[in-house]
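Researcher: Here's the sequence for the chain we discussed earlier.
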Amino acid sequence: MKKIIIVPFILLALVAAAVYYSQQQSVQQSDSLTLYGNVDIREIQLSVNASEHIAEVYVEEGDRVKKGQLLARLHTELLEAQLAEAQAKFLAQQQTLAKLKAGSRKEEIARARAEVAATKAEAKMARDSARRLQKLLPKKQASEDDVESALAKADAAKARAEAAEQSLALVIAGPRIEDIAIADAQLQAAKAQVALARQRLDDARLYAPADGVIRNRILDPGDMVFPQSAILTLALLDPVWVRAYVPETALGKIASGFKAGIMSDSFPGKQYEGWVGYISPTAEFTPKNVQTPELRTRLVYSIRVYACNSQNELRLGMPVTVTIPLQQSPGGADTHGCP
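Model: Thanks. This is the structure I predict for it:
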């Protein structure tokens, strides 16, 4: 009885081994590799780096947009006023620096010379008056208080004349180098404020970062927007690539640059040209959303297969079948052009 029970298990094991061997042989002898994957969904959530109410949204869902195209803008009245203020301060500081670099005008120097001459004349007159009083002191025709007062006035006049001469020297020398450097630094700060105000004004406008199609219009004019809130969703259509998974047993049969054919159920019989653009260096388990004849628990490697999609028939997320001929040289280019 034990022999009768063991025989069926042996037969089943032999059949399973034969099937496995047959599958491995078919994979080894096949001249192409068939994989299953999906067109990668590549979308961008578009927002602005500002907090304000939306003024206008210029696109609708389904619109094709070009890189750099204006898509929406916020209310910018406050930002425009801030820019005007920064520009006015910049112009004022620019004139201050120009005034310092120009130095003293000839009229200012002439006035300083005249002040020197006037103070010297006053000093001479005060000195002469004090000397006359000193001569009258022995004759008792002038008091000591009058003489002392006259001498003090002469000394004060002399000091004013010396101060006027120093002022003339400063006017001729012009502003200090340090003052010019400070004014120049203040001008650069004012220039930076203008650039900052312009950047904030530009941040209130939403531009397309790449060519694509507007998939979703999330907010409308009047809505309050913040930097973390999206206004539009942009679907990227170029380049289009398929995310597929290669079993470890077939990894050594393909290389970057291999040509590939891509087919979808939406267009039966039509094959799109493509090429292998990237092979992941890290193994992973097969994603559950990929239909593959291999066991889902088997380790696979993610690959990116670029597709020629000139008529935009391959849509994002679409399931496709990828066929890679194995009789290719691995030393080709990493990318290929589409016809």
